[in-house]
C-alpha cells in the first residue's frame, strides 16, 4: 500500500469517526428540526464532512485498484470537493 493509500484511508476513517461522534452528540432536541436526522445537513460543515468522507473513500479505492487516470473523479474533486472544503474553512 502506498503513502497515498494510507493517507486516504486514515483521512476516511477520521471523517467516519467524526460523523459518528456528531450523530451521537447532537441528536433529538439539539437538532435544528427536532428529532430529524436530516436536519443536521443545514450546516455547511456537516455537508462538507460527509462529502470529504465519500471523497477519501473513493480516492482510497482508486489508489489501491491501480487506476491511474480517472477524469470524472478528478473533475468532481477539483470542482466540488476542493472549493467546498476551502469555503467551509474560510467561513
UniProtKB/TrEMBL annotation:
Localization: Endomembrane system
Signal peptide extent: 1-28
A single cellular component GO annotation: membrane
Membrane topology: Multi-pass membrane protein
Entry keyword set: Membrane, Signal, Transmembrane, Transmembrane helix
Membrane-spanning residues: 37-62
InterPro entries reported in the protein's UniProt record: ADTRP_AIG1
Reactions that this protein is recorded to catalyse: 12-hexadecanoyloxy-octadecanoate + H2O = 12-hydroxyoctadecanoate + hexadecanoate + H(+); 12-(9Z-octadecenoyloxy)-octadecanoate + H2O = 12-hydroxyoctadecanoate + (9Z)-octadecenoate + H(+); 13-octadecanoyloxy-octadecanoate + H2O = 13-hydroxy-octadecanoate + octadecanoate + H(+); 13-(9Z-octadecenoyloxy)-octadecanoate + H2O = 13-hydroxy-octadecanoate + (9Z)-octadecenoate + H(+)
Family: Belongs to the AIG1 family.
Name of the protein: Serpentine receptor class gamma
